[in-house]
Amino acid sequence: MGKTICIYAGSNLGNRPEYREKARKLGEAIVRRGFRIVYGGSSVGLMGEIADRVLALGGEVIGVMPQGLVLGEMAHSHLTELIEVNGMHARKEKMNELSDAFIALPGGIGTFDELFEMLCWAQIELHQKPIGLLNASGYFDPLLALIRHSIDQGFANESHLGLLTVSGDPDSLLDKMEAYVPPVLGNKWKQLSK
């Protein structure tokens, strides 16, 4: 795993204090290991929490934000670098380009969108970068159950679960991601394997 981790996280704090605590602990673990983060550039929510913690500890934080959101004053004002792009698709492309790995923290629809795009790209082997879920307070359990359901119903392969690295503990998650070996995915299209 390289030095730059892309963070996907909620622009709200959520209802549990553990979400905020785990975001800060992940920021601390990232700085201790000499990594930097790339994220959506916001000053609010869990996005702001992890960025603030990394910056407070002397770490490097790169934000990537569409111009309209920058103008809306959601942009973090103390980042190492803020990259403005033309839209959400350009944001995801730039974040992928800059990153060696991805970690999703609890979040909403935007977090799921970003996570699933990278998961989809890994499934069709456009990248082989580690994808982690910081499963604070079991937040991602329903999502993992949905992926399991898609496998059980014949829409995904068992090997696709190997594309995700999951832990509720930041250090454990980073340890697993550093040891990540991409799974052998096999044929995605069951009808073509006959």
Descriptive report:
With 194 residues, the chain is an alpha/beta fold. The protein has helices spanning 17-32, 45-56, 67-71, 88-98, 109-123, 141-152, 170-178; strands spanning 4-8, 36-39, 61-66, 81-85, 101-104, 131-134, 164-167. The protein has one domain (4-193): Rossmann fold (3-Layer(aba) Sandwich). Helices cover 41% and strands 16% of the residues. It has a seven-stranded parallel β-sheet with strand order 4-3-2-1-5-6-7, sandwiched between helices. Strand 5 (101-104), helix 5 and strand 6 (131-134) form a beta-alpha-beta unit. Helix 1 packs parallel to helix 2. It starts with a strand and ends in a 16-residue tail after the last helix. 37% of the residues are buried.
Helix and strand arrangement:
Blueprint: E1 4-8, H1 17-32, E2 36-39, H2 45-56, E3 61-66, H3 67-71, E4 81-85, H4 88-98, E5 101-104, H5 109-123, E6 131-134, H6 141-152, E7 164-167, H7 170-178
Parallel strand pairs: 1-2, 1-5, 2-3, 3-4, 5-6, 6-7
Quick recap of the structure?
The protein has 194 residues and is of the alpha/beta class. The chain contains seven helices and seven strands; from the N terminus they run βαβαβαβαβαβαβα.
